[in-house]
């Protein structure tokens, strides 16, 4: 059996390509598709999220997380930045992290 290179395959498909007229077929198909609905399994994400928080709370993971968060806050608060309140910087960083998380979640869901 002869080995065919990628260039030969690309050349074949480029030369043998045929355009088929659409005449609005794709648009009609897209209109008939059902509207995007929230999947029935969304509850399971929240369920396991709550279970995970409960496990983290029982095992002491939440206390550890809040300890790290407090250390992060003290580090940001201790930064010598001119003319800015450390609490404003802390809130901006926290807001940025939350906004980034929401953006990633929407991209995954959308």
Pick out its properties:
single chain, 110 residues, mainly alpha, elongated
Write the topology of this structure:
Layout: H1 6-15, H2 25-32, H3 42-59, H4 61-77, H5 86-109
Q: Which of globular, elongated, flat, extended, rod-shaped describes the shape?
A: elongated
Query: What structural category characterises the helix and strand content?
Result: mainly alpha
Give the fraction of residues assigned to helices: over 70%
User: Roughly what is the average pLDDT, rounded to an integer?
Assistant: 83
Distance between the termini: 45 Å
Oligomerization state of this entry?
A: single chain
Task: Give the uncertain stretches in residue-range form.
Answer: none
Share of residues in strands? under 5%
Largest sheet: none
Tell me the total number of β-strands: 0
Tally of helical segments: 5
- Computed over alpha carbons, the radius of gyration is 27 Å
Question: What is the element string, with H for helices and E for strands?
Answer: HHHHH
In words, what does this structure look like?
The chain is mainly alpha-helical. It has a domain at 40-110. It has 5 helices and no strands. The radius of gyration is 27 Å and the shape is elongated. The mean pLDDT is 83.
